């Protein structure tokens, strides 16, 4: 099996299909989940699929630059900040509502 992979490394289409599958799973999770934490995890999966696209296109289109990797690092940093803010909001909602079920949250008014 290792010899088969060393002779035929995955090409750009393999990586793009993987990224599409990851993004689709994330989109499905955002649309179906009722838990706010589940929605956040699904959104993170979608952002990771975008990072994979940047890195793959950088590797196959301009292999000697680091533009895709820099965009990937930027997206990961933004995703980390987004997760921190979202978790703070979830904690505040949980204090008032005693649930983080997004179907029961109508407004953010005090």
* Count of strand segments: 0
- CATH fold call: Helix Hairpins
Total helical elements: 4
The H-and-E topology, N to C, reads as HHHH
Average pLDDT across residues?
86
Distance between the termini: 60 Å
The major pleated sheet works out as: none
Q: What's the architecture in CATH terms?
A: Orthogonal Bundle
CATH C-level class: Mainly Alpha
- Indicate the structural class: mainly alpha
Spans with pLDDT under 50 lasting ≥5 residues? none
Q: From the alpha carbons, calculate the radius of gyration and give it in angstroms.
A: 18 Å
The dominant shape is elongated
Q: What is the strand content? A: under 5%
Give the helix level as a range of percent: over 70%
**How many domain modules?**
1
Quick recap:
With 110 residues, the protein is an all-alpha fold. 76% of the residues lie in helices and 0% in strands.
Describe this structure as you would to a colleague.
- By secondary structure, the chain is mostly helical.
- It has a single domain (2-97), classed as Orthogonal Bundle (Helix Hairpins), CATH 1.10.287.
- The chain has helices at residues 2-7, 12-32, 36-61, 67-97.
- Helix 2 runs antiparallel to helix 3 (36-61).
- The radius of gyration is 18 Å and the shape is elongated.
- The relative contact order is 0.12.
- The mean pLDDT is 86.
């Amino acid at each position: 099996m290792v010899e088969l992979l060393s002779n035929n490394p995955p090409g750009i289409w393999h990586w793009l299909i993987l990224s599409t599958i990851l993004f689709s799973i994330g989109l499905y999770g955002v649309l179906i989940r009722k838990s706010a934490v589940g929605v956040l995890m699904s959104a993170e999966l979608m952002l990771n699929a975008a990072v994979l696209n940047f890195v793959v296109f950088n590797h196959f289109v301009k292999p000697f630059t680091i533009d895709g990797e820099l965009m990937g690092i930027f997206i990961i940093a933004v995703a980390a900040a987004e997760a921190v803010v979202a978790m703070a909001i979830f904690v505040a909602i949980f204090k008032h509502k005693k649930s983080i079920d997004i179907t029961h949250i109508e407004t953010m008014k005090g």
